[in-house]
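Hey, can you fold this one?
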Amino acid sequence: LLWYQGESDTAAEHDAEAYRGNMEALIKDVRGDLGLPSLPVIQVAIASGDGRYMDRVRRAQLEIELPNVVCVDAKGLPLKDDHLHLTTHAQVRLGHMLADAYLQHFAP
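Sure. Predicted structure:
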């Protein structure tokens, strides 16, 4: 499972503070629903966000400690002029980073 989400959670302190618990619950629920308790999850730590709590969301993403969950950090990848979305080149680079994470952590 590849997961890249969290920008909207940067707007409200409550959402940012709840992010880690919510994400851990989501991972457990998806694994339970699919009957795949060891489903590999690669999460992307967001590179941007409109809200003032971006650092809290990023910290939550980077600190998730569940088995078979790894995080790829998108910070530093080039953003479009809207300062929110990755450029096309950055999206391609992120794709390579995700593939590398999969191969390093989950490939047989």
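Residues 93 and 99 are 10 Å apart (CA to CA). Let me know if you want another pass with a different chain boundary.
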